[in-house]
Amino acid sequence: MVIVTPQDRxxxxxxxxxxxxxILQQLVVLAAEALPMLEKQLMDxxxxxxxxxxxxxxxxxxxxxxxLSPRHIPRHxxxxxxxxxxxxxxxxxxxxxxxxxxxxxxxxPQLYLTQLREAFGDLALFFYxxxxxxxxxxxxxxxxxxxxxxxxxxxxxxxxMSRGGELVMVPNVEAILEDFAVLGEGxxxxxxxxxxxxxx
Length: 200
Description:
The chain has 200 residues and is α+β, with helices and mostly antiparallel strands. Helix content is 24%, strand content 18%. The protein has helices spanning 21-43, 108-120, 173-183; strands at residues 64-68, 124-128, 135-140, 148-149, 158-163, 166-171, 188-193.
């Protein structure tokens, strides 16, 4: 996949690390759902004309939803739908010099997302709207639920089972979901598993 710009006509700087096939599939699904909405809104001048509906992702496509506490989302006011209550961090009550030091790089959701991808990137894909999103969507990779031969060196996020007299490793989903909550303690409100979409 290549995004062609005047500066790079053959290989794109933007896609050289590429979206994976699974992410491209998600983009196609989202685009297919967005197009009829846009066409309906643009063709009906008397309609509500709320273009923001295109930017509200459907959450039913994810296997797990990690809901975050709005108190720790620094870009909460940038959300597609303005929150009823927002938490301002770093705003001075009075203009002028202050003895307070600004906090740079305060972005707990991005730090948490980085930890999730480092720890569980081989099992799942993580999606987050960095502009005020309150939910991290998790999609299990199709290969993550295939039994793998037992190796003592690679038991992270897996449990050992006996299948056909042979020891195999499968994802320990309950422990992984618990790890999602433990890693995000104070930031994570709930971890919702949609177990009807997948099985071990």
